[in-house]
Design goal:
single chain, 245 residues, alpha/beta
Length: 245
């Protein structure tokens, strides 16, 4: 029997992106067998309208992505958890692909290939560079659609209470638990954060944060710079800087 998948979507003040993702999911035949949970912070009316009749909406106390995802996972009833960003679209056959991966008892979870929705040369180059990194390391970012057996997720204690890089931290712990599989089919995510802030400036900040994380130095003080203020839509431009693409 195929495992039941619970899709957990963390969202903060981003109803428009959530609506597009739920529209995409609604067009996929396999979604009928999935549970969709939106763990939300901010914009209660907009998010309620976007999710109406298509997802269960939770309002956890926290607003970090880690807190939202943990709350969604705690309420989930599926055998598998798929953490999906509010501006990311999984491939049409994502259920079949996850089921195929987890048919191997050694596999504990994994993620999808990454692709940007926008086709600018800079984003294509950044995606290609990032592809080399995660194929070599099996350390995934959240916009690759991390999936995991529910029992494994709970055994790991879920996402750590981090304001930044909670996805990379979890992917590293997941890889140590068992076989972590890269699905060679792209999950398409918006490059709006990169385009609004400048693709290469944003990429260099990621490289800097990754270096700090690797050296076990503090990355959390950069959280608001990356995420933006809690009362604004994620990925807004940095103030006072011209954008170059």
């Amino acid at each position: 029997m195929a495992p039941r998948i619970s899709i957990v979507i963390p969202v903060r003040n981003d109803a428009a992106a959530l609506a597009r993702t739920l529209d995409h999911l609604a067009r996929l035949p396999a979604i009928a067998a999935c549970e969709v949970i939106v763990a939300a912070a901010g914009d209660p009316d907009g998010i309620a309208r976007a999710a109406a009749g298509r997802a269960r909406v939770l309002r956890p106390a926290g607003s970090t992505r880690a807190a939202l995802m943990n709350a969604g996972a705690a309420a989930a009833g599926g055998d598998v958890l798929l953490f999906l960003h509010a501006d990311s679209l999984p491939p049409a056959d994502f259920v079949a692909r996850i089921t195929r991966v987890l048919a191997d008892a050694r596999a504990v979870g994994g993620a999808f290939e990454h692709a940007f929705a926008e086709r600018t040369w800079s984003l294509r180059a950044i995606s290609a560079i990032n592809r080399v990194r995660y194929r070599l390391t099996r350390n995934y970012y959240g916009d690759q659609g991390i999936f995991v057996r529910t029992t494994v997720f709970r055994g790991l204690g879920g996402y750590r209470d981090l304001t930044l890089m909670e996805d990379l931290d979890f992917a590293q712990r997941l890889r140590r638990r068992g076989r972590s599989v890269l699905v060679r089919s792209p999950l398409v995510t918006s490059g709006r954060r990169f385009l609004a802030r400048g693709p290469w400036r944003t990429f260099l900040l990621i490289v800097w944060l990754l270096a700090l994380h690797t050296l076990r130095l503090d990355t959390q003080r950069y959280a608001e710079r990356w995420r933006g203020p809690a009362d604004r839509t994620p990925g807004m431009p940095w103030p006072g800087r011209a954008v170059r693409r």
